[in-house]
Amino acid sequence: MGDFFVSVEGLWARLGRGDAPVVFDVRRAETYAGSAHVLPTARWREHTLADDWSRSLRPDADVVVYCVHGYQVSQLAAATLREKGIQAHFLKGGFEAWRSSGAPVITKAALPGRDELAPSLWVTRVHPKIDRIACPWLIRRFIDSEAKFLFVEPSQVVPAAKEVAGIPYDVEGVEFTHEGPLCTFDTLMKRFGLQDPSLEGLSLIVRGADTGRFDLAREAAGLLAVSLGISALSGDDDASALERGFPVYDALYAWLRTARSEMHGWPPKQS
Questions:
Q1: Fewer CB near the terminus (10 Å): N or C of the chain?
Q2: 186-213: b or e for each residue (b if 16 or more CB lie within 10 Å)?
Q3: C-beta separation of 149 from 124 below 8 A
Q4: Triad 20, 137, 89: Cα angle to 5°
Q5: CA 241, CA 221: separation in Å to the nearest integer?
Q6: How much helix, strand and coil, in percent to the nearest 5, is found in the chain?
Q7: Which structural domains are found in the chain, ordered by start?
Q8: 18 by DSSP, 3-state: which?
Q9: Rounded distance, CA 190 to CA 188, Å?
Q10: What DSSP character marks residue 5?
Q11: E strands, the chain, where?
């Protein structure tokens, strides 16, 4: 990252990872309200109140803020955060440069009950294996980095979600679930308008593993094996299954983005 700013390319290279920076949309309130999209995982904050909301950030937080064009609004917010000792940067060129580059954005309205100040809460079936680990990964990495997940018996997913104002997923009859041959991971990507070739490649692997369609991607059989192994190791600890599974999806996504053309063989080539 640059000293005071980060480029579109620099930020995009770091999103979709466990160590991604915290992203804040600081466009003026009326501009934000009139926009249908935000950057992945971004939450809105009032730029003139950065001194106040900086108190909710960890001292070691790595923060990126953006406005429309990367001018005074985001630079003021970044400067205020830096004055508080927080490692903050503004996005050079702002939201418009991000959109012009073709980098992915999120459809704001797709998140039911979107609350800029509170994490989303998702509810699904116990004993996650493939889709129910892949979906939390997608949500945390691209939609809401602070999202929380609850696991209950299948018959209790919908009533439990209603009880806690959560979002049910990966059960029949809800918005975020399988659609025909597509799995819930696909549905999330479509609803949130996520367009990224690497995520699309990952969706084929997830769908193949989750629905037994190994013809969709040769990696699907491997993901199934690893997922069942994670389930066996995790037992009834569903939170542990997520902790074990997220690095698998981090690695698959990184491979799809930067290393899928690399091959290995024996004996190794002599340099």
A1: C
A2: bbbbeebebebebbebbbbbbbbbbbee
A3: yes
A4: 15
A5: 19
A6: 50, 15, 40
A7: 5-103 (3.40.250.10), 109-259 (no CATH)
A8: coil
A9: 5
A10: E
A11: 5-6, 22-25, 37-38, 43-44, 62-66, 87-91, 106-107, 121-125, 148-152, 167-168
In this prediction the pTM is 0.95
Closest by Cα among 242, 185, 187 to 208: 185
SS3 state of residue 91: strand
DSSP per-residue string spanning 146-160: T-EEEEE-GGGHHHH
242/25 Cα distance (integer angstroms): 28
Asked if 245 and 257 touch (Cβ cutoff 8 Å), the reply is no
Q: How far is CA 61 from the centre of its chain?
A: 18
For residues 68 and 91, is the Cβ–Cβ distance under 8 A?
A: no
- At residue 1, the pLDDT reads 47
The token duo for 208 is: 């193949």
Q: What gap in Å lies between CA 148 and CA 156, rounded to an integer?
A: 17
Distance CA 109, CA 199 (A): 21
Measure the CA angle with vertex 158, ends 119 and 163; round to 5°.
60
Listed in sequence order, the residues at least 6 apart from 12 whose beta carbon sits closer than 8 Å to its beta carbon are: 101, 103
- How far from the centroid of its chain's Cα atoms is residue 140's Cα? 4
Ranges under pLDDT 50 in the chain: 1
Strands (E), 126-223: 148-152, 167-168
Tokens 């059960």 belong to 171
* Helical H segments across 88-154, by residue range: 94-101, 131-138
Contact between residue 91 and residue 100 where contact means Cβ atoms under 8 Å apart = no
